[in-house]
UniProtKB/TrEMBL annotation:
PTM annotation (4-aspartylphosphate): residues: 57
InterPro entries: AAA+_ATPase, AAA_lid_NorR, CheY-like_superfamily, Homeodomain-like_sf, HTH_Fis, P-loop_NTPase, Sig_transdc_resp-reg_receiver, Sigma_54_int
SMART domains: AAA, REC
Keywords for this protein: ATP-binding, Nucleotide-binding, Phosphoprotein, Transcription, Transcription regulation
Record has Repeat as a keyword: no
Descriptive protein name: Sigma-54 dependent transcriptional regulator
Length: 484
């Protein structure tokens, strides 16, 4: 048969004879089996992400097979479920299928091949869905370069470097604070390279202990350590032909650094507990928020590994050093989460955008994204105002105040001056419109500016008066309202 042999099958039946028979039939077909004689325990076993297909009896004590089916589908809708019963009726079959069952078998089986064939088709269907989901995730990831947003000179330099290095096979080291988008850069490089149709594998090196990290990266042999119940490929083998992204490479223990050096030098890995190495063709992209040069000088990072990794370096600037990118990013995240949450939120008030722009953003782009998502979730307005932002943003500084000057003090003089000037011009235009009852022609004459140029300034600084409907509700519509 043509079914995937690696599919893992859960069998749940309170009849020990049937449980043993079904288990024996499926094991002969090469399936790894988890056999459970209690429905409640079966529900716990079904939460194992390695389970692909569940074969359940309908009539069981404590928890019926039908209830178990519904619970499994609620917890893991991707698992294919086959129901078994000795009391078959059309009604129960229809109910099982409506609840999400893949098929329905009657005990005793007229032909044991019926069981094997049905499980095989369910396993094929599960494998097909898994492949489809993986493809969709890959297609989504390929477009993620669009999430690397910026118009600042620093980000334009990053974009140019990404395009250049994508066509090589050289090792890349991405440096930057947490939240600056290092993985997005790594994905952008991969999906612009000749390896784009091969795997992109990401691993956070700081999230695992030394033993687990080596097992994840290089794989292990059965019995290599406690809990190693079988042979396992590592992520380097999984990424063969593609790219592996080693995030937080600066946190890798010294012993693992030695093994990484071998991969970079020899192009081969040795599984934990193995005697023979395995050849791999993998491009390595590493990232870190720590100063590797300093770590090298302090003896915390191997000098030879440092030079192997540091072939091409991409430095990602913190968000506080490129405030001109904040409005662009803020609008991007606003559009993203408004669509995701199906809410009509279209923009920001000038005060809100000023508050976002002058913030220091210690968490960088990730922090900005979280702030915008929170605001979209909580707001009942069509335009986000300062009050929709977290409490720290709501003390909006007044123009020219010491607080405002202090909030810009982390920026270079030219950037701080430009932001302060924008804030002044926006507030001046807003006040002028209010003084002239929102009449653009009158405000332009008062400012001594040509009307068309004044409208251009209003549009540039996103300044507009109240709507006609608002003016009528004020009982004052004697003059026409003009907005940019």
């Amino acid at each position: 048969m043509n079914q995937p042999k690696r599919a893992k099958i859960l069998v749940v039946d309170d009849d020990p004879v049937v449980l043993k028979a079904v288990t024996s039939i499926l094991q002969r077909e090469g399936y790894p089996i988890v056999a459970i004689d209690d429905a409640v325990e079966g529900l716990t076993a079904a939460k194992d992400p390695s389970i692909d297909v569940a074969v359940l009896d309908i009539n069981m004590p404590h928890l019926s097979g039908m209830d178990l089916l519904k619970a499994i589908k609620a917890e893991r809708p991707d698992v294919e479920v086959i129901m078994m019963t000795a009391y078959a009726t059309v009604e129960t079959a229809v109910e099982a299928v409506k609840a999400g069952a893949y098929d329905y078998l009657t005990k005793p089986f007229e032909d044991i091949d019926d069981l094997s064939l049905t499980v095989g088709k369910a396993a094929e269907r599960k494998a097909l869905k898994d492949r489809t989901r993986a493809l969709e995730e890959a297609l989504t990831a390929r477009s993620q370069f669009e999430d690397l947003i910026g118009q600042s000179s620093q980000m334009r330099a990053v974009f140019k470097l990404v395009e250049t290095v994508s066509h090589s096979t050289a090792t890349v080291l991405i440096q930057g604070e947490s939240g600056t988008g290092k993985e997005l850069v790594a994905r952008a490089i991969h999906y612009r390279s000749a390896r784009k149709d091969k795997p992109f594998v990401a691993v956070n090196c700081s999230a695992l202990t030394e033993t687990l990290l080596e097992s994840e990266l290089f794989g292990h042999m059965k019995g290599a350590f406690t809990g190693a119940t079988g042979n396992k490929k590592g992520l380097f083998e999984a990424a063969d032909g593609g790219t592996i992204f080693l995030d937080e490479i600066g946190d890798v223990p010294p012993a693992t650094q030695v093994r990484l050096l071998r991969v970079l030098q020899e192009g081969e890995v040795k599984r934990v507990g193995a005697n023979e190495p395995v050849k791999v063709d993998v491009r390595v992209i590493a990232a870190t928020h720590v100063d590797l040069t300093r770590a090298k000088e302090q003896g915390r990072f191997r000098e030879d590994l440092f030079y192997r990794l540091n072939v091409i370096t991409i430095d990602l600037p913190p968000l506080r050093d490129r405030p001109e990118d904040v409005p662009l990013l803020a609008h991007h995240f606003l559009k993203l989460y408004a669509a995701k949450l199906d809410k009509k939120v279209t923009g920001f008030t000038p005060r809100a955008m000023e508050a976002l722009t002058v913030n220091r953003w210690t968490g960088n782009v990730r922090e900005l994204e979280n702030v915008i998502e929170r605001a979209v979730v909580l707001t009942s307005n069509e335009v986000l105002d300062v009050e929709d932002l977290p409490p720290g943003f709501q003390e909006a500084p007044q123009a020219g105040s010491p607080v405002e000057v202090f909030s810009l003090a982390h920026l270079p003089y030219a950037q701080a001056k430009r932001l302060a000037m924008r804030a002044f011009e926006r507030r001046y235009l807003t006040a002028l419109l209010e003084k002239n009852n929102n009449n653009v022609s009158s405000a332009a004459r008062a400012a001594g500016v040509d009307r068309s140029n004044f409208r251009r300034l209003l549009k540039q600084y996103e300044v507009a008066g109240r709507t006609m409907k608002q003016r009528k509700s004020d009982g004052n519509d004697s003059s026409p309202l003009e907005v940019a």
